[in-house]
Design goal:
- The protein is of the alpha+beta class.
- Helix content is about 40%, strand content about 10%.
- The chain has helices spanning about 10-20, 25-35, 40-50, 85-95, 120-125, 155-175, 180-205; strands at about 60, 95-105, 115-120, 130-135, 150.
- The protein has a 5-stranded antiparallel sheet.
- Helix 6 packs antiparallel against helix 7 (about 180-205).
- The longest helix is centred in the C-terminal third of the chain and has 22 residues, at about 180-205.
- It is globular, with a radius of gyration of 17 Å.
């Protein structure tokens, strides 16, 4: 598949990926063949970490996340676990964009945005992340004339988003009325530390082995 060819729907892509798994291909190899470019290590590090269910206001796209598995794990689900119309609308408007995650918290840096890679960037070895504001739970009919750059990588953008989220929780915790529980402050701090740990592991070559 050419990196800029029209994007296949989830069910078609899931069948292709599963067929490659059945041939003994790794997740990294299968997705590279299906997207026409290698996906970066951070994608597999996040998938392997299992961190995403713990992240508030974080909604991963069906592709590529639901396509990633390992030999011995469950098969790829052939129906998208969540509605794909939002990510598909973006990919249909610009097949070079690969939607990754929606961040829902409007008052937080990078919030109320769909985060994407550009396949043409990935082909050049860049992991730049772009953001489409207002694309959360909205089927877009057009894109901005220029989709803005949010950061050098998905983990960088998530680190900024959750650092801001934690700062807001901390402010409410220590502010008048002690407005949040101890557990919420602890969870927000744990998220920031977990993302920082993933970044350090990738830098030292310990993450993203799928």
């Amino acid at each position: 598949m050419s990196p800029t060819a029209p994007r296949e729907g989830y069910a078609t892509m899931a069948a292709r990926v599963q067929a490659l798994y059945d041939q003994g291909r790794s997740a990294r190899e299968a997705l590279a063949e299906c997207y026409g470019v290698e996906l970066p290590d951070e994608i597999f590090a996040i998938a392997d970490s299992g961190i995403d269910p713990k992240l508030p206001d974080y909604y991963p796209a069906n592709q590529p996340w639901r396509l990633i598995t390992r030999p011995g794990r469950d098969s790829v689900p052939f129906a998208p676990p969540t509605p794909e119309r939002y990510e598909k609308a973006v990919a249909d408007l610009d097949p070079d964009l690969l939607p990754l995650v929606c961040l829902d918290e409007e008052e937080t840096k990078h919030g109320d945005s769909m985060l994407c890679y550009r396949l043409s960037d990935l082909a050049q070895g860049a992991t730049t992340v772009y953001g489409i504001e207002g694309a959360v739970w909205t089927v877009l009919e057009e894109l901005p004339a220029e989709v803005p750059r949010y950061g050098d990588s998905l983990l960088d953008v998530l680190a900024e988003y959750y650092a801001d989220f934690y700062a807001q929780v901390e402010e409410r915790y220590y502010g008048p009325g002690h407005a949040v529980a101890d557990e919420m402050l602890d969870e927000a701090r744990d998220i920031v530390e977990a993302i920082d740990r993933l970044k350090r592991d990738l830098t030292s070559g310990l993450g993203g082995q799928s």
